[in-house]
Amino acid sequence: MELERLIGMLKDRTPVILGSDQFIKYSILLPLIHHDGEIRVLFEVRAHTLRRQPGEICFPGGKIDQEDRDEQHSAIRETSEELGISESTIANVFPLDYMVSAFGTIIYPYVGVIEDYQAIKPNPAEVAEIFTVPLSFFKRTNPEKYKINFQIQPEENFPFDSIQGGEKYNWQTRQLEEYFYRYEGKVIWGLTARVLSHFLEIISEK
């Protein structure tokens, strides 16, 4: 391969996250509403008939479809479908930092305002119930934090004789910090709590 041709293949290339073509991509929306004179955060309780994470508390969202214009449209579409509202009632949608997980997923979170709270009619196939929490509660409440330790477990025929140190190789292990918020018997944790905490950090900085 000629050097000029090789350079030509590289110079206009836009870098992405290595291996991201193998990742499953999701978009979610942190919904804000103005109700009873205050800003509140809306949460869903996942339907108990769902295969993944039934009964857990989450934000609206789901897998990005090929038909979606972009990640933001995916978050709006999923919110519209799950809450039974028109896409036009979801306004002021802005991106938060996206997340690359250790489990082969990329999550694109957004924050937006649902303008007609009374129009919400949750889809029972996906949503068991909804509830709201005053934003002021989260602004004055620090989350509980607990660590999860990941363990390295090479498969049985791993070629230890091909690496320095063999079976005593000093693997780099890592921890994942899980956040928990508790409000009137509801436990908000995991990805939902992490996105919520990130949002709170942003508005605290401002």
Automatic annotation (TrEMBL):
Keyword Iron: no
Domain Nudix hydrolase as annotated: residue spans: 23-156
Highest taxon above the source species: Bacteria
GO function terms (MF aspect): coenzyme A diphosphatase activity; metal ion binding
Cofactor: Mg(2+); Mn(2+)
UniProt keyword terms in alphabetical order: Hydrolase, Magnesium, Manganese, Metal-binding
PANTHER family, sorted: MITOCHONDRIAL COENZYME A DIPHOSPHATASE NUDT8 (PTHR12992:SF11), NUDIX HYDROLASE (PTHR12992)
Protein name (record): Coenzyme A pyrophosphatase
Organism: Bacillus canaveralius
